[in-house]
Amino acid sequence: MGGRADLPGAAGRPLHLLRGQGRPPAARALRDAELKVEIERVHKANFSVYGARKVWRQLHREGIAVGRDRVARLMGELGICGVVRGKPRRTTTPAQADARPADLVERDFTAPAPNRLWVADLVRHEAPWMRMEVRDHHRRVVAAARPKLRAA
Question: In 3D, which of 145, 146, 148 has the Cα closest to residue 134?
């Protein structure tokens, strides 16, 4: 009576998966379904440019009480988002792809164990000195040098 054997198709299935069968949907799921319709309506009515914050504000103007993060979550589930204004700032201009020298270390800078792959890093500042460092796979400095510069 009330055991797993009474449920059809229960053989070999975990009990926690069977408990929810036959239950009505949760109140949150029902409210989410209602809100998704309203969110899509507001988003489309505003030329599909409103993001979560503006959709949330419009819903509040219309008297629909809902949280901003809930609107953002439901918009993500619907696959809709707002339009981002402006252009992305370009910080560097890539050079033309010329013939590159052969990659002798195959650009794999992950060391599987200590002392397997050493990488030297030359750091130059506008100060009157340079510092050369060699770091291990834990990013610890294991060797450093500051060469003396001679006046020419």
Answer: 145
| pLDDT tens for each residue of 30-74 | 999 999 999 999 999 999 999 999 999 999 999 999 999 999 999
Hey, where are the domains in the chain? 24-84, 113-147
Beta strand pairing status for 141-145 and 130-135? Answer: antiparallel
Residue 23 backbone zone (phi > 0: left; psi -120 to 50: alpha; other: beta): beta
pLDDT of residue 14: 74
Tokens of 116: 């397997």
Residue 32, pLDDT score: 97
- Burial (CB count <10 Å: 0-12, 13-18, 19+), residue 71: buried
- Does pLDDT of 5 surpass 60? no
**Of 79, 69, 70, the residue nearest 43 (C-alpha):** 79
Whole-prediction pTM value?
0.50
Question: How is residue 6 annotated by DSSP?
Answer: G
- Report CA-CA distances (Å) from 57 to 52, 61, 65: 9, 6, 10
